[in-house]
Amino acid sequence: MTSRFFLENSQEFLSGNKISKKNNPDVFHHLKDVLRVKDKDLVELVAGQSAYLVRVNEISAMEVFFNRLDKLSKDPEIPVKTTIVVPLLKSDHLDWLIQKATELGVFKIILTNFSYSVVKDIKIEKKLQRYEKIVKGAAEQSHRLLVPEIIYEKKFIEQAGLSDHQIGIVAWEESAKAGEKSNLFKMIRLAKLDSKFNEIVAVFGPEGGISKKEIKKLESSGFITAGLGPRILRAETAPLYLLSSVSLLIELS
Amino acid sequence: MTSRFFLENSQEFLSGNKISKKNNPDVFHHLKDVLRVKDKDLVELVAGQSAYLVRVNEISAMEVFFNRLDKLSKDPEIPVKTTIVVPLLKSDHLDWLIQKATELGVFKIILTNFSYSVVKDIKIEKKLQRYEKIVKGAAEQSHRLLVPEIIYEKKFIEQAGLSDHQIGIVAWEESAKAGEKSNLFKMIRLAKLDSKFNEIVAVFGPEGGISKKEIKKLESSGFITAGLGPRILRAETAPLYLLSSVSLLIELS
């Protein structure tokens, strides 16, 4: 499998078919020191908003030059941009969720607080740096065309709102318990069939659940509560169920 | 949330509404030492093939007695029994997969070898003991009615075969690359609509992929190759995509 890399600085590649240690230090390091590419090796580079298949042409102390073989036209991105809003989770559960969500095509990840959240937002800036690395690595590994954004919004629910082209879903266990079985399917189909909607924003609560007050606020902001089946899914599993569902219904006929 | 436990010995509960340290040591330990249940606490017990809501009535040195409040009729199991066949994976990747697959409703997990497997089956017996604990814990946590079976079959592919009521799927990246987009959906729908089929067996290869020879053998045994969308999914992610898809199409209208 040809390795894929996202360029930090696209310009030098787009104009000069090269990358430099100065402008693309991460990719340069990966190619020279990790992969140890040689002449004629193939890699995929994402520059601008396209992916290119390239062959290594020349390697110097500070630069790597390529021959551009092909512009890769396959679009690996879900046509409906899907954002997941999730709580801060314990230890490596969030690491794992972020990686898997990226493999499954998530567009954006918003970390926020819930009434019943256990983990507090201590050192969130430092954590975000690590999360960004995880997202980038997963985007490269799954051969995506964009690196999902991951941000922290302290009060997402209080400030929640949907634009005209967004469908809002909140995964709520109480819905599933009450037998709610059709909203998830309906909402994804709506996104697929009605061209007015091209984004889904899906909210997932912590282990302790989402409070009634939070549900009321989200519903009044236009979010629809949905059950995700009859089993209880952990906070880090539920978003993967949703992303798989979006992919299945929208990308696979 | 009321905790759920699978009884090792159902008989003493079904006849006597109790569990003993002697016959149900794990559950006894959990109730007394971990949860430290008191009089009137509620728990859910799975005995025989049913789940019961019970109230703690009396706690002695060797036994816990209950009042049976309700037989829980909600069926959390996917009507189509879904087996996943997966390679041995590195370190905790398999732990995660097993846990998540159980949350998502898997019926049976078969570990096997592929041509391009990296991890060998060293100390598989000891590993299976740990995997069984993980499966049981996840089944309790997700409030399932059965504990999925997890086994090791050294040569699954060589001996692969499907019964009349099984649909076989092999998740193959080459299919997805070639643009195959409809088989997964079709096969799950077939399981849903044709009562002749009530089981799905899905095969997932290792990081290095499935060899052409293995694909040929599986196809000749009745398995259908299917793409799981345009992104490359890791070996531990692809089964979760499939299980979510089965649940979405069969359990949610």
UniProtKB/TrEMBL annotation, chains A, B:
Keyword Secreted assigned: no
GO cellular component: cytoplasm
Transmembrane segments: none
Catalysis performed (reactions): uridine(1498) in 16S rRNA + S-adenosyl-L-methionine = N(3)-methyluridine(1498) in 16S rRNA + S-adenosyl-L-homocysteine + H(+)
InterPro entries in alphabetical order: Alpha/beta_knot_MTases, RsmE, RsmE_MTase_dom, tRNA_m1G_MTases_N
Keyword annotations: Cytoplasm, Methyltransferase, rRNA processing, S-adenosyl-L-methionine, Transferase
rRNA processing as UniProt keyword: yes
Enzymatic class: transferase
Subcellular location: Cytoplasm
Example GO biological process: rRNA base methylation
GO molecular function annotation: rRNA (uridine-N3-)-methyltransferase activity
Domain Ribosomal RNA small subunit methyltransferase E methyltransferase, residue spans: 77-246
PANTHER family, alphabetized: 16S RRNA (URACIL(1498)-N(3))-METHYLTRANSFERASE (PTHR30027:SF3), RIBOSOMAL RNA SMALL SUBUNIT METHYLTRANSFERASE E (PTHR30027)
Function summary: Specifically methylates the N3 position of the uracil ring of uridine 1498 (m3U1498) in 16S rRNA. Acts on the fully assembled 30S ribosomal subunit.
Family membership noted in the UniProt record: Belongs to the RNA methyltransferase RsmE family.
The protein, known as: Ribosomal RNA small subunit methyltransferase E
